[in-house]
């Protein structure tokens, strides 16, 4: 079964939901005048840990991928919990490295660990949970016609780094360092997410690919999104890898997962209030679907159980 089919199967039975219906980066319930935001995200050795990733990077990433979802809801992360599945033959030093990485992540994002559990498993599993608080939720359904479509940071380095590793590409040391920093040590946009909570109309983090995330925004908001390929923030290092592989750098930027940048829509007059760096890559219109340079954009990106990805 494909990932969407599995999710649909379970949603037919999970009818008792929180104050915010399922479908966003995180769930939420009212807590007085604020929202308590909660999310969980699982890191699995086979699919999420390349052999060049250090155990410290593994632990840090487990924290990042969870607090990123909280940030995408406009919430300030307040706590982290995790369950650890450990193969029987894992080495002590490797586990200690993961623990050190989790601690570094907690320090970096300023959140405490609240609870943890461990059990034996056939593969390394870190199933994390992050909690956050916000007065105003950012959701995937808030985009409005006239909004600007914006993204933090740059796009494509994560998948470009993955392809350099997978294909054994020879690239300059400076290029490899830049790509591997995003591929192996991604950072969540927590500060930006909190600031967006009071200004933006909608947001989502880029964990599965920009194109795929924009399709979710458009569908849940009931709008059409139009992008300009010339406005996508693509670095020279991504272009370099694309040329080596005979690939389109725009395609890499649109399909690159685990970027953990924030894509958001905001009214034009409010965009000037944002005091962090971002790129305006398109606009929201009445209608449906996602387009780039006037042509339909397929939902490029990562999907679990899809073995054709990035071949």
Fourth CATH level, the homologous superfamily of the largest domain: PurM-like C-terminal domain
Q: Portion of residues in helices?
A: 25-40%
Q: And the CATH topology of the largest domain?
A: Phosphoribosyl-aminoimidazole Synthetase, Chain A, domain 2
Class from secondary-structure proportions: alpha+beta
> Sheet bearing the most strands, described?
7 strands, mixed
Radius of gyration: 19 Å
**Count of structural domains:** 2
Strand content: 15-25%
Structure description:
The protein has 311 residues and is α+β, with helices and mostly antiparallel strands. It folds into 2 domains: 3-134, PurM-like, N-terminal domain (60s Ribosomal Protein L30, Chain: A, 2-Layer Sandwich), CATH 3.30.1330.10; 148-296, Alpha-Beta Complex (Phosphoribosyl-aminoimidazole Synthetase, Chain A, domain 2), CATH 3.90.650. The strands form 2 sheets. It has a 7-stranded mixed sheet with strand order 7-9-6-10-8-11-12, with helices on both faces. Strands 1-2-5-3-4 form a 5-stranded mixed sheet. The longest helix is centred in the first third of the chain and has 18 residues, at 55-72. It has helices spanning 3-11, 45-48, 55-72, 92-109, 157-167, 173-184, 190-196, 210-221, 236-245, 249-255, 268-271, and strands at 27-31, 34-44, 76-86, 113-120, 125-134, 148-152, 202-205, 224-227, 262-266, 278-285, 289-292, 295-296.
């Amino acid at each position: 079964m494909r990932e969407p089919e599995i999710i649909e199967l379970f949603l037919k039975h999970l009818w008792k939901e929180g104050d915010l219906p399922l479908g966003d980066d995180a769930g939420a319930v009212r807590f007085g005048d604020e929202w308590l935001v909660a999310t969980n995200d699982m890191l699995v050795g086979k699919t999420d840990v390349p052999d060049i990733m250090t155990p410290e990077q593994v632990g840090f990433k487990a924290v990042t991928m969870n607090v990123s979802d909280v940030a995408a809801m406009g919430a300030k992360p307040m706590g982290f919990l995790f369950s650890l599945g450990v193969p029987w033959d894992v080495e002590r030093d490797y586990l200690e490295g993961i623990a050190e990485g989790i601690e570094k992540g907690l320090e970096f994002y300023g959140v405490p660990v609240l609870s943890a559990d461990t059990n034996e498993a056939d593969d390394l599993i870190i199933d994390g949970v992050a909690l956050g608080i916000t007065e105003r939720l950012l959701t995937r359904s808030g985009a409005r016609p006239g909004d600007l479509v914006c993204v933090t940071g740059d796009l494509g380095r994560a998948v470009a780094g993955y392809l350099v590793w997978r294909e054994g590409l020879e690239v300059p040391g400076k290029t490899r360092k830049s790509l591997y920093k995003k591929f192996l040590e991604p950072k969540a946009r927590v500060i930006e997410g909190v600031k967006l909570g009071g200004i933006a109309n909608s947001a989502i983090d880029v964990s599965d690919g920009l194109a795929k995330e924009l399709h979710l925004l458009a569908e849940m908001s009931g709008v059409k999104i139009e992008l300009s390929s010339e406005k996508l923030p693509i670095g020279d290092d991504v272009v370099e890898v694309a040329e080596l592989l005979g690939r389109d750098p725009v395609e890499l930027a649109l399909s690159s997962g685990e970027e953990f940048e924030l894509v958001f829509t905001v009214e034009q007059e409010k965009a000037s209030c944002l005091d962090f760096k971002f790129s305006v890559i398109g606009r929201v219109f009445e209608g449906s679907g996602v387009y780039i340079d006037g042509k339909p954009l397929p939902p490029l990106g990562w999907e679990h159980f899809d073995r054709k990805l990035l071949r």
